[in-house]
Amino acid sequence: MIDHLNFPQGWSTCLVGEAGEAIVGQQRTPAAANGPDNRPYLRVANVFDDCLDLEELATMSFSPEARLRYRLQAGDVLLCEGQSRELVGRCALFNGEVEELYFQNHVIRFRPHEEIHPDFALLVFRAYQYSGIFSALARGTTNIVNLGLKRFRGLPFPVPPLEVQREISERSRQVQDLLDLTTDALQKTSPMVSDLPQKVRDRIILGDTCLDLDTTPELIEGEWRKASEVVGESSPIVYGILQPGPDISGEDGVPYIRGQDLREGEILEQQLRRTSPEIAQKYERSALRPGDVLLGIIRHTRVAIVPQELDGAQITQGTARLRPAAEIDSSFLAHWLASGAAQAWLRGRMRGINMPGLNLADVRQLPVPLFSIEKQRELVTLLDDAIAELDLLREKIETGLNRSNMIERALIVSLAYGELAEEISREQPGRGTSANLVSSLRAKAGNESRESRKKEVAAKKRTPAKANIKVTPSRDRLIEALRAAGTRATPEELYASLALTEQDIDEFYSLLRELETNGLVQVHRPDDTSVFLEVSS
What we know:
The protein contains 17 helices and 27 strands. By secondary structure, the protein is of the alpha+beta class.
């Protein structure tokens, strides 16, 4: 993918390392973490796509020399050096929002030379992330990869005339603003639409009646019953199997339904597990029939109706079965259990913190409005139609968000160096040529390289011989440091505790991958941005 990058005709190219200065930030060593005069800095968790989260900034100590090297200035592009494979290289522009701000070694700072417009550099890097170039370049484990500063510096970078860069940047910002408005509107609408089904059920079933079920307000054309009074006399409210045993493959097993198998009013039949007929026989009292209403009672109070295909199936202890008596319609009971009023009543009686759940005694006490069977079926028709419309609206919003994301990705790539960039390039011939800019950039890169070598030589002359002893990463050191942490540690914390240099980062992640592959280290990703490591027990 990287070898087949096509840039518009007439554009020259250089390397990323020639287009600007690319460095990683300061390590968070114990000395820096506990040192004096702490300063705010950016971590991977602060760098999002085209956005910096500056609300919660960590701090550490920076020496005067480090402050000169790592202090950010307006126009710097920040990239996630270490991340999951699909998110590595995620980047944003710093516009000087914070007066004094630094960055750590898992973030790359790219400071473009004057021949490169900062917004254009950001656009190119976003296109590289969207199109999978950074992902293909990165190395690491299944869950953690690093971009690699050397590999990043060696990437090709397109250099159109500066006038073209400015025009592309301006148009991309206009496009991005429109896309952000659309996405923001859809994201704000999504939770509102998700809440509507419960509110619609309340309105259609109860009308203007007070929703405080603890007072059981008066019903027009109906009366209140307890849930235990609207199920069959021979079929009390029960939960199911306590220990289903190993999963039985094929038709020999009896399918059983867990709380996580209930979703959006349906049973996810494709993911059901099966228990043995012998175990199912012991719990014959909780066997299911078509029309039974299921209620999750651990963590979630989701609702679904048992279809014909699951006749004879079973449930677990995380699900309650309500078999409606003849005087109540299954669909009406299911709609009521999923209403805002009933859900609030049930959640208010949940107990526990890590695994909150309902007792069946509470479920049996749930107030249920009971109307004539004709009235119930009339309400069910209204409810089914209303919920179907809301489901359709929710699907349209989700489709809109997905399409907006796809359009954004396609437009960013096209504006950075694709068809739209080529079209803008034809419209903006510019005064300076692309080749002249690249010549200037390479001349600067050559001067910087010579200056860097002079500094290295001078530093070696000043450094005592014993300071040249290099501490390298090893499997044993990684495991020892991770054990010393006493609990889960982030890759950043582990890297810092080993006091490695930025030249060691590739070897560090290579060792992590080897340790994970061999089962010596476990990698946990609780969300998109967090990564934790621990020694396998």
